[in-house]
Write a structure and sequence with these properties.
- The protein is of the alpha/beta class.
- The protein has 3 domains: 20-300, 2-enoyl-CoA Hydratase, Chain A, domain 1, CATH 3.90.226; 331-512, NAD(P)-binding Rossmann-like Domain (Rossmann fold), CATH 3.40.50; 519-726, N-(1-d-carboxylethyl)-l-norvaline Dehydrogenase, domain 2 (Orthogonal Bundle).
- It is 48% helix and 14% strand.
- It contains 29 helices and 21 strands.
- Strands 14-13-12-15-16-17-18-19 form an 8-stranded mixed β-sheet, sandwiched between helices. A 6-stranded mixed β-sheet has the order 1-2-4-6-8-11, with helices on both faces. A 3-stranded mixed β-sheet has the order 7-9-10.
- Strand 1 and strand 2 form a beta hairpin.
- Helix 6 (180-189) runs parallel beside helix 10.
Amino acid sequence: MIDLEGLPLPAEAPAAGSCVRIERPEAGLALLYLDPPHRKMAVFDVPLLRDLDRALEELAKDASLRGLVITGKEPLSFAAGADVETIAKVSDPALATKFARSGQGLFQRIHKLSRSGGGRVFVVAAVGGPVPGGACEIALACDRIVLADHPKSRIGLPEVLLGIIPAWGGSQRLPRRIGVTAALGAILTGKLHVPRVALKMGLVDRLTPPEYLVRVASEIALGRTPCPYRGRVGVRKVLIDRNPLVTALIANQAMKKVLAETKGHYPAPLAAIPLIVGAPRRNLELGLAAEAEAVRPLSLGEVARSLIGLFQLSEEAKKNGNLADGKKAAPIERAAVIGAGIMGGGIAGLMAERGLEVRLRDLDQKQLDAAVVAHQGEIDKKRKRKQLQRHEADAALDRLTVTTEAVGFARCQLVIEAVAERLEVKRAVLRELAAQMGDETILATNTSSLSVDAIAEGLPNPSRVVGMHFFNPPRKMPLVEIVRGARTSEEVVRRTARLALDLGKTPVITKDVAGFLVNRVLGPYLDEAIRLVGAGVDPDAIDRALVAFGMPMGPCELIDEVGLDIASHAGASLEKAYGERMKASPLLKPLVEAKELGKKTGKGLFLWQKGRRDKLMKAGVNPRLARGSKTLTADELVDRCVLAMANEAVRCLAEEVVDGPRALDLATVFGTGFAPFRGGVLRYADSRGLAKVVERLEKLRFEVQGENERLGRYEPAPLLVDLARAGKKLHG
């Protein structure tokens, strides 16, 4: 029996034996179902590990057993992997090791029972739906893996995305199955593979429709249906996977690539590489011991704590689509989008891809044609990558219709406008639509800077007007701000959040304040970078410092990416709303007047030119800008930009713009790209110590005041001062 003593239990601990169900449909065959009563989908928590251990002990004693199928309660509901809550709660190194070894021990029992492990039972994993992490690892311990061929099925080892590594045998079994090179690609990216790709790479051995999953797996387990092993065997395995010189070269290249992509901020991929490349040449038991030893410091480290925290926050955000009684809000099935620009066209295409009937309107037929072509390009790309079947791709194309006329919208349950960022234009568009739609139709605005209440003024039934703020590009950016106006009904807020979730986005509900949350906290960060450029700091130096800090893109490049005209407009809106504290730098005005708007015109803060595959590349700094007259250290540049953001974020927290520090941190990571390994801007402030943050802000206030000719930006927020004096944290 495995030792689970001391590991945390879930809030609802079920009775012993109830998490695993065994059925014996015929002689020599057993079906083992992962079916915990306290969860919708099985998760490898302490109760499930305990009951699985007892079930395997019972099965091992059955001398008549010839075939075993391990499956979930339903064909598309296998298991969600190891319990993240358990990992998050464990702070004792001994318990961290125990949790790793317990999973390894269980899956080794399956392996030793199986034919491939020298046992007498042919063990088949019958899996479907999401099969991540520990769910994939238990399948890897079996003789064969049968996967339900369905769009919901995904299988892989995403642990590095949580700051840890596969620690229940994944780093050892996957390289043995698919080869070192393929395993490095799978584990270091944390990618979950669609069925066709998983079959091609040898991760699974057979695909079958979900309704036949258990039946096909049973036939294979009893030897009545042949199922060749799709894993890597033969000469290539010897020449590459077991050749120390070749694997050393592969490891070296992998290390270089990881360091180039992560700047060394993420230790998990670096820890995984030697485990993966050494697996085929190492005894399995020794490999498992090394795996458990490697995961312990990672699971207790700050990076994993931050990334696991973000994962938990994104899971919590899914509740934003629920009504007060806990039930999901009604789905949106038919929608309209007004405005076929990059934003509106992208939103409409995403909706059509995700199953909504969408009607896209624009007065310009060329805009509509471009939106259709872009949608077709995205769908074709996914079909070629096997992410969509042909019939699914055809349906996604058919669901998008376009028009230049204000007709055909009566049946839509939601309309979202993405027209010019002018109050009267948006009001007029929604007023025209409200006249032909029912009183229950949700009127959503994609505004980034205008008040939802102001837009709703004069519209019939303003309780149905809501902000649904996507970020550009809408297909890729993970966050959507759901903006609650003073008169917006709770049901409308929740239905709109449900729509965001159905589109694969993470919704954060915000108050209707200027800039909402993301643009409000991003404003001081970007403006501070502009002021540094105006003071003579090299924009490249600013960007290098912030990228080294962990931002995905430097603030100067981000301004060129967004467009100087849009950045200037957003800055003016924030200054109008918040006064001196948000006073915008005058640096952008002459550049905007000269139509030097960033990447879209080839000249902004930087000069841009087309490089390989027409990708825009930097070609220097705009000669209009003064350079080299001021030099600051990387730490000084980071503090000037990041602490300006943090201070404004604390003000947002005090004003309850969002529901607490956790939602705020999630929004800063998903909306601004704030370094994920730092856990969000508030968690970063906590990690520095609030007293030290206040001290540094006061110093910056004194240093920068004369230079920037304003007072409020670095004046510590009152809540920050109060918490620092009390020795408390923002995440209380």
